[in-house]
What we know:
Layout: E1 4-8, E2 36-39, E3 45-47, E4 51-58, E5 64-68, E6 78-89, E7 94-101, H1 107-110, E8 116-122, E9 127-133, E10 138-145, E11 151-158, E12 168-174, E13 185-186, E14 189-190, E15 192-196, E16 205-211, E17 220-230, E18 238-242, E19 249-250, H2 251-256, E20 260-266, H3 279-286, E21 288-290, H4 298-306, E22 312-314, E23 319-323, E24 336-340, E25 357-362
Parallel strand pairs: 19-25
Antiparallel strand pairs: 1-7, 2-5, 3-4, 4-17, 5-16, 6-11, 6-17, 7-16, 8-9, 9-10, 11-12, 12-15, 13-14, 18-20, 20-23, 21-24, 22-23, 24-25
Amino acid sequence: MKFEGIILSGTSTSILPIGGGGGVDPDAVDYTDVAWVETDPNGKFSVSVNSILATNLIENEEAYIFKDYGADYFNGDLIHEVDINVASATGSAIAGVWAVTNDVDDFNNIANGPQVTVTAYKDPDSISFTLRNNSAGTQNSISGLSYNTNYYLTIERDHDAGYSSAGRSAIYVYSDAARTILVGTSNKLTGFTFVDLTAQISLQYLGATGSHYQASETDTLTYTISNLTLLGSPSFITAALTGTLADGCNESDIVNGGETIIITLTGGVWGATVGDDNALTTALIAGIDGGRAEATSWDTLIKESALNYTHITRDSDTQITITLPAVPAYSISGNESVVAHIPASCISGNKSISGNLIMNIINGA
């Protein structure tokens, strides 16, 4: 069994409407369809055609809304969109706001299986969305989001990507309905995070929302979800790393200069002005992080000093080359791993890269 879902958590009050009114997009979900099965013992859900309001949904009750699409319906790539506004929460409340699964239950009990879950929770004074792969025990969060604010989420699954080609799920969080402005943070990424899956398993149920049942918890959450839309296949942008530094190099190679980092995109295009003297190039350089704290290591001498736009060439729409200058003072007491986090702003269309690029510098001659 595998699950992909969203869970909310969270203190203020007012519901801001998300999206438009009566009409439903051809690919949009109609929450009033009789095929949706609602378990709501205390009347916490108010359901309309394209939105669900959950009012003071409490953690120690089992309430949820699911639809059976038939066995193996979600059997490959997918893109789903949903809009979310969290009005208020108490304590560390959690609730589910999106799911694809092979089980129907509250979101906490579903999440105990070998599944992927997207969650949003109170952390404690703002909102976070968390993407989970429980079968591998991994998760990543996008945090620093606000109450009473409309967020527009895109959730993707690439059935053949990721570790051992077992699949990868990703979540994007936007501040605009056109889904062009990514918001929130996840490590070095803005508005985007992903987890690799462990098996290619087909899925049956679509979950609209639900409680995160914990018998001893009485925290509550008020939120609106709306405009759930099922789209086509995702197009993850990936990056391949080549060049002399990608193959691994010695400390002396960095001292002498001339090492190259070549980054080639698949499914995406570099911003037209990457490599010019501008904020995009500065952001690209700032995202290449060294792994040592010494004053003579990568971050201090290269990222923050020696490396600049003159060392970056946009070879084509899909390839850039970074050529390192000589850095005579570079000195490390152990091996240094250098990780390139590519900012979404450097990619045409403000799209994030699925993954990071790792290079190794060997201490010594």
